[in-house]
Amino acid sequence: MSIKSLLLPEPGLRVLVTAGGSGIGAAIARAFHELGARVHVCDIDRAALDRLTAEVPGIGATMADASAPDDVDLVFDNVQSALGGLDVLVNNVGIAGPTGAVEELDQDEWDRTVSVNLNSQFYFARRAVPMLKQSSANPCIIAMSSVAGRLGYAFRTPYASTKWAIVGLMKSLAIELGPHGVRVNAILPGVVEGERMSSVISARAAATGVSVQAMREEYLRKISLRRMVTMDDVAAMAAFLSSPAARNVTGQAISVDGNIEYL
Fold first, then answer.
1. Comparing C-alpha atoms, which of 90, 71, 73, 89 is closest to residue 81?
2. I need a surface site. Which of 42, 168, 203, 209 has the fewest CB within 10 A?
């Protein structure tokens, strides 16, 4: 088998991307579709789903709140009906959560961040694993963590806590599922260009009392390559991790961040 063929996911791969209506999730969904995969996405944003499926009619979609177990069950009913099984789960759901000093954080905002960012990973993994165990197509779970899942992140403790927990969940599942041939890895994106990062920078600037431009420059100074990554950079890593070339890659937390040195 040639190196080129190893680097491409198998044609017809059955892929579920959570929070796939926009942002990184949509970039991953488009990448897999372009590579010949059969893709289903879910998202809480109906308008985002409608835009994606209008742009890429071959992608299936379910509107769902990933933090609600009943909604997750609906997603898997639709995946079973549309795809007949599953080879790849991309657990991409996540929110930024509140920004502020720990003593000032609202408990409801903390609980919501944990529910969306961490509990959803469990809900989807629990339903996906029986399907993945039946797959013969190099099955895998890709959990979306963050560079905040390997570094401390002042004023963003709810977000960072969930992203560290995702890495722990991933490593535990890699051990648990390895004997069944199911691989589990996490991608840790860094500063990703886009509206969400702009909002995070603005919120952090307000919390620390500096200008938005100064905060943006501070973020770039922390990156060895002095540039943000793109959504397509993250999508490319997801595609690689689902390819035959990555058949012995499991239990890994892989940063796509230009080497962020500190937060």
1. 73
2. 209
Residue with tokens 């943000």: 228
Q: How many CA atoms lie within 13 A of 57 on its CB side?
A: 0
Query: Token pair of 119, please?
Result: 């509990």
Query: Which helix (DSSP H) or strand (DSSP E) does residue 183 occupy?
Result: strand 183-189
* In the block, residue with structure tokens 């490593």: 171
Kindly report the number of other CB atoms within 10 A of residue 210's CB atom: 13
* Secondary structure of residue 88 in the 3-state scheme: strand
| pLDDT tens for each residue of 9-52 | 888 999 999 999 999 999 999 999 999 999 999 999 999 999 99
Residue where the block lists tokens 């938005």: 212
Neighbouring CB atoms inside 10 A of 32's CB total 26
Domains of the chain, by residue range, sit at: 3-191+229-256
| Each residue's pLDDT tens digit, 152-198 | 999 999 999 999 999 999 999 999 999 999 999 999 999 998 887 88
CATH 3.10.560.10 fits 3-191+229-256, yes or no: no
10 secondary structure, DSSP code: P
Could you give the CA distance from residue 90 to residue 106 in angstroms, rounded to a whole number?
30
CA atoms within a 13 Å half-sphere pointing along the CA-CB vector of 120? 33
Catalytic residue, chosen from 153, 159, 219, 262, is: 159
Q: Could you write out the DSSP letters of every residue in 131-167?
A: HHHT--S--EEEEE--GGGTS--TT-HHHHHHHHHHH
